[in-house]
């Protein structure tokens, strides 16, 4: 049974680790006893746009084969570029054979002022603000190698080192706390029987106010009876 291939359409492709740029493809002929042999030479640059970049040259009878060989060689030649934010740390001028490259750091927002091969390499390296100038030959292979030599020659400046010291990324390790002697577990306290809540005391009834006592009526004094005469 032949597979319909529907499942293959929905297979998610893994993101590539590096971006690839084909700088130049040349046809190379070699004269042998039986005649001429034709091959292709591909100059490739790869980078992750975060500071890592590499270049390689591959040769094959087919263009795709030459590109794949160039990418494989570029991965073996990857190095880390020292960047100062979005630009390079300092000015640098490099000569490689008949190619000369001048790179000058620029302020943030300037952009990538470069052309042709140099621009592709700097973009893959993650440089966003720089001024550049190419002197001498316009051969793309030599200009590419000169640009890579310039990026390899970059060094950290004292300003960059001070910035790293002022903002350390790693936190100091905490000292292990001394383990205190383990205390025996405390005995559970005996629970006392809960007393029922006390009943509220009955308030004594208030006595009515006492009535005032009636005063006894005084009788009029009786006239004493005369004593009988003898």
Provide an overview of this structure.
This protein has 230 residues and is an alpha+beta fold. The protein is 21% helix and 26% strand. It has helices spanning 6-9, 63-76, 117-125, 140-152, 158-166, and strands at 19-32, 35-47, 52-60, 79-80, 92-96, 99-105, 112-113, 130-136. The strands form 2 sheets. A 4-stranded antiparallel sheet has the order 1-2-3-4. α3 runs parallel beside α4. The longest helix is centred in the N-terminal third of the chain and has 14 residues, at 63-76. It starts with 5 loop residues before the first helix and ends in a 64-residue tail after the last helix. The model has no long low-confidence stretch (mean pLDDT 81).
SSE arrangement:
Elements lengths: L5 H4 L9 E14 L2 E13 L4 E9 L2 H14 L2 E2 L11 E5 L2 E7 L6 E2 L3 H9 L4 E7 L3 H13 L5 H9 L64
Parallel strand pairs: 7-8
Antiparallel strand pairs: 1-2, 2-3, 3-4, 5-6, 6-8
Helix pairs in contact: 3-4
């Amino acid at each position: 049974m032949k597979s319909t291939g529907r499942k293959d359409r929905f297979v998610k492709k893994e993101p590539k680790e590096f971006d690839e740029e084909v700088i130049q493809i040349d046809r190379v002929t070699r004269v042998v006893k039986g005649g001429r042999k034709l091959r292709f030479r591909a100059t490739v640059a790869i980078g992750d746009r975060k500071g890592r970049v590499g270049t390689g040259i591959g040769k094959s009878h087919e263009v795709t084969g030459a590109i794949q060989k160039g990418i494989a060689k570029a991965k073996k030649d990857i190095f880390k570029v020292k960047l100062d934010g979005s630009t390079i740390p300092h000015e640098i001028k490099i000569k490689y054979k008949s190619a000369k490259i001048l790179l000058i750091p620029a302020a943030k927002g300037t952009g990538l002022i470069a052309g042709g091969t140099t621009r592709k390499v700097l973009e893959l390296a993650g440089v966003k603000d720089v001024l550049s100038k190419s002197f001498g030959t316009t051969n793309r292979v030599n200009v590419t190698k000169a640009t890579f030599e310039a990026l390899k020659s970059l060094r950290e400046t004292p300003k960059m080192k001070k910035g790293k010291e002022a903002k350390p990324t790693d936190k100091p390790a905490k000292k292990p706390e001394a383990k205190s002697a383990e205390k025996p577990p405390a005995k559970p306290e005996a629970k006392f029987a809960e007393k029922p809540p006390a009943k509220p005391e009955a308030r004594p009834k208030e006595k009515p106010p006492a009535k005032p006592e009636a005063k006894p009526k005084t009788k009029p004094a009786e006239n004493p009876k005369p004593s009988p005469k003898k």
